[in-house]
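Schema walk-through. Below, the input block comes first and the output block second. Nothing else is stored per chain. Lengths vary across the set, and this one has 1092 residues.
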Amino acid sequence: MPRRNDIHSILIIGSGPIVIGQACEFDYSGTQACKALKEEGYRVVLVNSNPATIMTDPELADRTYIEPITPEIIEKIIAQERPDAVLPTMGGQTGLNVAMELAESGVLQRYNVKLIGADEKAIKKSEDRSEFKEAMQKIGLDLPKSAFAYNLDEAWQIAREIGFPLIIRPSFTLGGTGGSIVYSESDFERAAQYGLNCSRINEILIEESVIGWKEYELEIMRDKADNVVIICSIENLDPMGIHTGDSITCAPALTLTDRQYQKMRDAAIAIIREIGVETGGSNIQFAVNPENGRMVVIEMNPRVSRSSALASKATGFPIAKIAAKLAVGYTLDEIRNDITRETPASFEPTIDYCVVKIPRFTFEKFPEADPTLGVQMKSVGETMAIGRTFKEALQKGLRGLEIGRKGLDFVKYPYKTTEEILAALAIPKADRLLLIRFAFEEGLTVEEISKASFIDPWFINNLFDIFQFEKKISPALLSEDQATQKKIIKKAKGLGFSDAQLAELLEMNELDFRNLRKSLGVIPTYKLVDTCAAEFEAYTPYYYSTYEHEDESVVSDNKKIVILGGGPNRIGQGIEFDYCCCQASFALKELGYESIMINSNPETVSTDYDTSDKLYFEPLTFEDVMNIIEKEKPVGVIVQFGGQTPLNLAKRLLDAGAPIIGTSVESIQRAEDRDEFAAMISKLNLNQPANGIAKSTDEAIAIAHNLGYPVLLRPSFVLGGRAMRIVYDDDELLTFISDAVAAAENHPVLVDKFIADAIEVDVDALSDGKDVMICGIMEHIEEAGIHSGDSACVLPPHTLSEDIISEIRKATIKIAEELKVVGLLNIQFAIKEDTLFVLEVNPRASRTVPFVSKAVGTPWPKIAAKVMTGRKLSDLDEAVERNIDYFAVKESVLPFRKFPGADIILGPEMKSTGEVMGLDSDFGLAFAKSQEAAGNNLPRSGTVFISVKNSMRRNIIFMAKMIASMGFKIYASEGTWRVLSSNGINAKMVPKIGEGKPDIIDLIKSNAINLIINVPAGKKSQIDSKPIRSAAVSQGIPYITTLEGAQAAISGMDSTERTGFSVKPIQDYTINLQVIKNKYKHDLDIRQTMWN
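--- output ---
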């Protein structure tokens, strides 16, 4: 059937910021959808609040709205753009939920807009757990015993009928948000109330526990002609009870019998037909009781899911692209497979290799949080590895996680007895595979480990095989003849052992072992991911490494440049760097180079098979990268765009002969090494905070005493402020210095005198080695001391004088010239009483580059890639500085609701998972949009609680008067109340916690507070106010901890009250910008007018 011609314009709803449970896999799916629909000639309108994505690049959609994803905003976009249809299935749970709200409120009907991909009925039938249960019972499928509750009384009644343990699953949520496993009555009420709060429709499913059962997923597609294909089966190594996003998974499913698989397949087909998804893809989850084979249906996602990205990369089948084409009327048999160019999309993918996905956690950022894994997702990213066997893929995945592991390494645990080990195995945590490895070392059997962990014996046996083979590797092997050495080493490589692992076992250094391996002729071969197990020729060069005889890679004679990606997402290194890598690939294609991407992240656009000319899905380790460089012999290797991961490899790659282009490795080292950095700033006669370099704890204490507390610990060679900490005394320094030294991997730690009450500024710049351009100067809204990735910032700077801006420009150019930067550069400055201090210099792409690029309409990473190949800025027409007459505000999105108990006070170590952007000609509205997009909805009426430290009480008076003038009631702590009352502001005093009722916790829990402004003074005050912060997070109340943040929020509330939001695509913002070639004009008067 041909494409639909009754539709001409389609609105795609994105997923918003990167959060735990909804990450850049939806940037991948949205990007695929935009490309597929434009290919078909449709006018594509996109709404997404995330500036870090490829999806929100202005070239991708015809009209791109970087706006909050709310019904109010999307209705405005629909009114303005008049699309014929909305595609909600590419934007995760956010896209589905907002589409449902638009349908239920009558907005879609009012504007005659159709839902495509999945209609309202199908979404409701799969997402509303009560309707889904009824549908499954209708077609005779089994589910866990369960019932629905809409309040606590109903929840208690159901719990008593089902019995403990039980599982709580809220409806219409993503990433298991609000879900929990409850083992006893004492924990039930809190868990049930939390689940009800998290559900869009206040509905929770209370379900019998299937903890310990085996979990499977099927990715499935259906078209309107009722053709159905199973794209991929996925098996969780971990048992039920661990969210699938936190589970180690493999494709295809490995422990199902053929009969079980056929039964599951038949069930999935019956489900997608009954639910009514007829133009797209779905993900269906099953559980199987290992004792008796009973199979139950867990849930269905009627949309592209997290697992869809994994399945797409695992098979080479572009699920999102095909789903978008099905949504506009095509059938599976009419769509060609891009990889084979012969088979239709109705030809089910077949894979003759094994794929393993391992999640990446960052519990070190949240030491107060419970690291136990459960039904609510906690991982922040993932890596994927491909091998000929499960063992090979697993070990490649472990080294691809970038957590300091070479593979299935031995780690010593403190457990002394078998009972202690078994007890630990029963509590799933991020390190469970290493704990199993330790259990083998301590003599535990496969059966004991499987019984304690509920992990299938098949997987435990495979881990045991790796463990046993490792015991055969010892220095004695080096005394054997070459044939024996070759045989053993090749077998080890086939089991996924890394060079670093084998070198350690043979008591050699890695480089010597690498040379030995190559001299024996043990070199990797590369296989194609071709969707059809080599039954048809593959035209898309998408490779993985293994150690077999046949090599399927084809090496051309073209000029090639390799781009190193960022590996698995983590806090501090996320989608922003993938954006830069993709832009680099696009630039290289324009210049006629063959672009080669190396990355291990299945969620991203960079690992799409058509982003670069060649894709190697491999871990970003020295061994794996160097193998590819030696095979491809590129003329250049780009290490500047993938964050800290490739930078940390740069020196070893250079020493091994890799042709690294752009800023020299020597210059990168000068900026990253704190000792050399301090010397360089001193040489340039620029200011830096008083500091000292510490290589031991004693040195750090001596420096701190000399500088005076508080001091800031800054490790070398880290990203996301890892282990950076403001410390106030010797005890704190002793507690945190070991973390800083460990994070720096024995490089020096800089001990800075902390500059309090300073303004922080971020600058992105670009240099070709001669000329320097300022991409953007961003003023942080919060004061210095909060990591730039967590601080809100505004472009252009709205309170800085022309003199300070000029000084920032001069300092940036000085530093770029001194470091001989070729490519991007990021510098962080602090301003205290008109004195400019240099805090940090990063000679690479920064996480703010995508934001700046979208704000000013210039693709800076693309230009930087061209510069790195030798082009000059003066020869590139697109290389222009722009002066903007509107405001762009970047706000961070924090994951505290996923980590109950973690403190929300921000500091120099980054904790945010993503970001959003607010755009408007009015600063207040731009800020308010950024807050709404981040989920911190500023109230339009209600009550504000204010409690600030003594030194700020005079400053809060004007703000409190503004709050009162907008009609808000004010509650205040005793000291703040006295100041407000004495200045004629009507406020009500709230007693300290435990000193009277109702206190602030009571008011928060009773929903009597709509906004909290709490600026604590010093360490004790921070500790005292922690219960307030925790209560606010659990109730979803906006909580502001800085005076600058409060000022911006009040400006936003005022502007929203006066004018309300309007919407405008970024193409319209940037089209009429004044272009300033090699010049930056700072019009302070205009900006002060806008600010006022």
